[in-house]
Design a protein that fits this description.
Two copies of one chain form a homodimer. Helix content of chain A is 54%, strand content 15%. The first copy, chain A, is built from ten helices and seven strands. Strand 7 (174-177) of chain A pairs antiparallel with strand 7 (174-177) of chain B.
């Protein structure tokens, strides 16, 4: 039988990563977030920082142009090479265990391969701005601008590799406003559906 | 204190109306769906069938043209007159009691006026097509086409009167795929959040 997997897609600053980690703890299953980054780094030979940035976000300033300007690995742009490694690892994880996977288009990659619970976490701009200033130590200088930029690049990346619209409710089984319910309540709701 | 209200926005054929009714039953509060239609008919003098169709959907075949071609009531197009009556009644309801309201842009109309739990219910096309054929006795001839048409008109209506995008997760506190969880489970989740 296919393994049961919770995929967490999230807006930057919505607490989706924390919700993923806490849900995994509550369910007693692994959470792939930073762990996935490390696996991808090991497998690809690329730097973690590069993967963190490029494995979910299109680069700044004209992503199409930049993608084509990338140096190539085995005839693929680095961005596409990273995508194939990321995809292969996520498929391997999906075949081996129940788990939570945060981000990285896992919802799309595992769509036909696992028993998925696809979750989207978001929050109003003001709540996210407060969160990234307080928790991530971001400067309080225009956090909204930075959030909009992150959202835009994550959406562009998702659309480029999945041909679907990021953040549209209909792609997920459940979508939750983390500011309305709080982190722990979101964890409770998701765990109860697993 | 503001009354607590659950607004249910939903894709046609997703079972959102049934989820609204059952949630209200479970919480022991009124559900405004057909009841709201009757109130609007009484107040406006318009026929229920007209309100059912025009109070949530833009008319077929060029809604803008049709809207302007409408006969006027007190200097408003019938469509806009219906909107003002609908809006006034929903605001009255929001001031008078805890309740569930299905559709009719209640989430937007009550945004600042009540303690809202904004819910969006949707389901994959295949599940909705099966539902409208089985439950509503729709002909099985292209139910998908009819669903797409309904979705499009509901989205256009919502956007026209609220200037927001219908069905975008971020407008709601929670969005649920009713085909994945089933009607009763959706009712349980929503009731637990009230």
């Amino acid at each position: 039988m296919a393994h049961r997997i919770v995929t967490i897609s999230r807006e930057f600053g919505s607490g989706g990563r924390t919700i993923g980690r806490k849900t995994a703890e509550k369910l007693g299953i692994p959470c792939y977030d930073n762990e996935l980054l490390e696996k991808i780094a090991e497998e690809s030979g690329l730097a973690k920082e590069y993967i963190a940035e490029r494995g979910e976000y299109t680069p700044r300033g004209g992503w199409l142009a930049t993608a084509f300007a990338d140096r190539s690995v085995n005839g693929l742009s680095v961005q596409d090479y990273l995508w194939t490694v990321q995809r292969r690892l996520i498929l391997q994880i999906g075949e081996s265990e129940d788990c939570v996977i945060v981000g990285r288009c896992a919802d799309y990659i595992l769509e036909e391969k696992a028993d998925l619970l696809k979750v989207f976490i978001y929050a109003p701009m003001a709540a996210r701005a407060e969160r990234i200033v307080t928790l991530y130590g971001e400067t309080s200088d225009s956090p909204e601008k930075r959030l909009r930029d992150k959202d835009k690049r994550r959406a562009a990346y998702y659309q480029f590799y999945t041909d679907m619209e990021w953040g549209k409710a209909q792609h997920y089984h459940i979508a939750l406003d983390s500011a309305r319910f709080g982190i722990d309540r979101c964890v409770d709701i998701i765990s109860s559906l697993f």
